[in-house]
Fold this sequence. Notes:
Blueprint: H1 8-19, H2 31-61, H3 66-79, H4 84-93, H5 98-105, H6 117-125, H7 132-143, H8 152-166, H9 168-175, H10 180-191, H11 198-208, H12 214-227
Helix pairs in contact: 1-2, 3-4, 6-8, 7-8, 8-9, 10-12
Amino acid sequence: MKIKRPTQPELNLTTQSLCEVDVTPSFIGTPATFIQKRSNMLVSRFLFLVCFLSCSLVGFSQKPNGQKELEEAYTALCEQPSDSIRQVRYFQAYPATFLELQSCFVENRFQNHVMDYVPYLTAFDQLAFISKEEKMSRLFNIFVGGYWQADAPGQHLALLRELMRKDPRTAFSLLAKEDKLRQILFWQCYWQAPGKDLSQEQDFSTFNRLKGYDVERKIMKDAYGTFRAKLPVLD
Length: 235
């Protein structure tokens, strides 16, 4: 929710109200009672002023969201697609986690303004100055802790699968740098699907034939038996 910044006259009026407290007693009572009520009045007005100013400052501290940064980087890239600096800027602005991916491309009951993921994903795939290893690493990080979901997440996962199938050794060299928990979370998302299909068996067979990476292949194999063709509870 956007917070309206208070104008200077409003701030002056609030401060004046706080300072100009009528000290003339309008009731009959003991001095102690009068002092207590006056103190309560001062505290109430002080808290109001603090809340008023705090809410105003919240509006100033809000940072541009990921959508805006990505849109600006995409616009700049479209103007000069072959510019290396613009490619790097676009890659840096691209979602780096599953939550960021959803915030940009997935519509839900809390967010109905999302971007069309197709041109953005296409531009990501076509970044010539970003290596396949870097793209694979970014997509891997997105799906650690993610889950199967149609449309944008599904197409990003499809791109990752394509990269891994073309260069499985590079993919496993990246996996070997991660701890066991992150590998499990990644494979959990990788093997999830609405149902079983031949491509899952082919991927498993291809990856399981890799020489070396015994620890990583064991984690992959266990995840395959546990999570294959199972949909997440959250979806």
